[in-house]
Task: inverse folding
């Protein structure tokens, strides 16, 4: 306790889920319902003080998260489990806190992260399934070739300039991204595209999936896909996949603040099998 009698602040990390359909993205926007606004309002109800949260990924309007990580500073002396239960009691039904943990004062949800992982879900069938429609792109027009999509994804691995998959409006000074892992697989009518990278450009995943759909229908060859993004031809990447199919499913740190050296299961709630990621001291 300081000389003034005030409690010293501590930093708390949260792992949260949210269904993005009811939000205008993560970040505060005047007059709009956002995840950050709702989470901060819930924290303020508990600690009776203003708060500002930082997130590992600033998801866009309509995008979901099954493993978003955020942090905030607080003087409130509650154990992490009590924070988790208290927040879930006052949060709206489309946000849930999965884990809470104290972290060092210099730890940052965004800047301490080694990687983020997004998964995009496409429901490729002539018959809609209402139970996955809010968390996937319903694509009834033709049968998509997931093997061609996988081949196109393989051209992305490594560090490259991905300006072709960058929406206008970003203030980032460069378009360099290191993509570490990619995957495309089909389970029945559901196709999932998974990408793990050190960071993502503004709108990158939705533009990428829109371009992959061109490959999957046969309109583009894998070679043309690679040539377009490698040349930085943003004009050729015309269509972004809709937001509801996208989900932030993991964030990696040098040491997982929630379950160090344990298996963490995350799932985009669209019916596919869960993915398991070991978060150890290397972050993988």
Result:
């Amino acid at each position: 306790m300081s000389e003034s009698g005030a409690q010293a602040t501590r930093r708390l990390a949260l792992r949260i889920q949210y269904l993005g359909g009811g939000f205008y993205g993560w970040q505060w926007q005047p007059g709009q319902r956002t995840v950050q606004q709702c989470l901060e309002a819930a924290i303020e109800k508990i600690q009776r003080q203003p708060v500002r949260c930082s997130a590992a990924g600033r998801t866009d309007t309509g995008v979901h998260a099954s493993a978003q990580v955020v942090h905030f500073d607080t003087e409130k002396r509650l154990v992490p489990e009590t924070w988790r239960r208290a927040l879930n009691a006052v949060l709206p039904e489309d946000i849930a806190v999965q884990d809470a943990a104290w972290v060092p004062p210099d730890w940052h949800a965004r800047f301490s992260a080694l990687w983020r992982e997004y998964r995009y879900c496409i429901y490729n069938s002539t018959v809609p399934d209402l139970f996955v429609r809010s968390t996937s792109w319903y694509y009834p027009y033709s049968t998509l070739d997931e093997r061609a999509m996988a081949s196109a994804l393989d051209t992305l691995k490594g560090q490259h300039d991905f300006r072709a998959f960058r929406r206008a409006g970003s203030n980032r000074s460069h378009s360099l991204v290191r993509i570490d892992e990619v995957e495309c697989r089909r389970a029945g009518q559901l196709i999932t595209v998974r990408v793990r990278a050190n960071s993502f450009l503004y709108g990158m995943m939705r533009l990428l999936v829109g371009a992959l759909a061109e490959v999957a229908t046969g309109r583009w060859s894998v070679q043309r896909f690679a040539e377009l993004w490698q040349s930085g031809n943003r004009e050729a990447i015309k269509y972004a996949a809709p937001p509801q199919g996208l989900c932030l499913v993991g964030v990696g740190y040098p040491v997982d603040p929630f379950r160090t050296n344990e298996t963490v299961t995350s799932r985009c709630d669209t019916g596919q099998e869960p993915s398991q990621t070991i978060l150890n001291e290397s972050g993988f």
Observations:
- The longest helix spans residues 35-47.
- Residues 1-5, 261-284 have pLDDT under 50 and may be disordered.
- The CA atoms of residues 90 and 257 lie 24 Å apart.
